[in-house]
Amino acid sequence: MTTEQKTNGSAPFNRGTGLLLIEVRYSNPNGDPDAESDPRTLDADGIGLISPVSFKRKLRDLVADHEGPVWHEAKKALNLNGARFDILEKRGRDRDSIFKMDAATFMGSFWDGRVFGNTFLEDIKGKDFKPGEKDHFISTGVVQFGPGISIAPIEIERLTTTNKSGVQEGKDRGMAPLGWRVVRHALYTMPFFINPMMARKNGCEPSDINLMKYLIPHAYRNTASAIRPFVEIRHAWYAEHKTPLGSCPDSMILDALAPKKIKGNADEPSVSIDDYHIPIELPQDIKERLANFDDLCAKQWG
After folding, report:
1. Does 170 map to a domain?
2. Of 61 and 125, which is predicted with more confidence?
3. Quick one: which of 122, 137, 143, 289 has the most CB atoms within 10 Å?
4. Helix 206-215 vs helix 69-78: angle between axes, to the nearest 10 degrees?
5. Rounded to two decimals, what is the model's pTM?
C-alpha cells in the first residue's frame, strides 16, 4: 500500500462479493467436536453447516507450506515475494517476538493478518501502552467468509472402522466405533465479502486478495484427508464492484447465483448434483453494475 493511499483515504481495490458452491460426496467437510465429530448441522432443521473458520484454516495451511507445490505455483503465477506471506495463526508461533513488532513490520509479515484480521487482546490486557501504540494487533479483516449452508438437509452415515495393527499397548488390533462419519451427498453455498474499507488499517494490498482468489479452488482438493476425500468447489463466483463502496447490493448477486433443488422434496437430502439447478451466469442487468465477474475455478492466472 502506498503512502498516498494511507494518507488520502483512497482504497487499493474495489469491493468484492463471492459465492462458493461446495459439493460433498461421502465426506465430512467440517466435524463438530461437540457431537463426536459428526458433520456439523443446524439443530432446527438438519441443514448442513461448514464454519468459516474451518475454510480459512485450509487457505492458511496452503500459504504456510512454502515448500509445497501450491505455494510454488501461486508464487510463480502471481509473482509474489515470500517474505510478506508468513502466517500469524499457526502452531508454535513466538507470541513475544510478534508482540514486539511495530505496525509496519507486523503488517508486512503476515498474510492472514492483512486479509482476515487479527486480535491479540490477551496480550494487551493489563499492559501499559500509549494510545494507538498496539492498535495493529486488533483489526477487522478485509475478507469475511460467511458459514457454508447446505441447500437441503444432510444425511449422515456412520461406520465402525478397524485397524489390523493395534494402536493401544497390549492389543494386536484396533477399532474406532462409529469413527467414520460422513455426509452422503450435499451442496453447500458459502458467501464471502471483500471490504476495502479495512485495508488502510491492515495494510492489505491487491496481491493479498489475488492470492486468496488463486487459492480458493485448491482449498479442499489439495488438503484432502481420509475422512474428507471428496469435497469439491464446483464454482467460486467472484463479482468485482465498480467502486470501493460497492456498485450493486450483495443480496442481488448472491440470490441470482443461489442453486435450487429441483428433484425430490426440498426438505429431503440430495443424492447427486443432478438434483439441483445451478445458475452459471448473472442476469445482464446485474452484470452491468459490476466491473468484472469470474468463476475462480475456471480463471487462468499468469
Report:
1. no
2. 61
3. 143
4. 140
5. 0.89
